[in-house]
Amino acid sequence: MRRLATLAVILLSFGPARADEGTSRTTTDNAEYCEALAARLAASPTPVSGTPRELAEEGKRLCASGHVRTGIAKLRRALRATRAEAPRGG
Known about the structure:
The chain has 4 helices and no strands. The chain is mainly α. Helix 2 (31-42) runs antiparallel to helix 3 (51-64), helix 2 (31-42) packs parallel to helix 4 (68-85) and helix 3 (51-64) packs antiparallel against helix 4 (68-85). The protein is extended and about 60 Å long. The model has no long low-confidence stretch (mean pLDDT 78). The chain has one domain. It comes from Sediminicoccus rosea.
């Protein structure tokens, strides 16, 4: 009984989720998410070249060969690298 009370206190301390916290993106480690990341890279306004391109190609290859988690990690790194290379307005 004491464990149940402790669990209830822990759960209540997190509080209910609020709708005004902004939107969150749910990700899953599956082939569809690999394809979504690859599509985001393809639609990127910055040309994917050099290291980001290599990461993207390796990520797509890994996803295709069943190494989805590693492929997703590479695709995410490619997206971050592409954003870092994007020219900044100012």
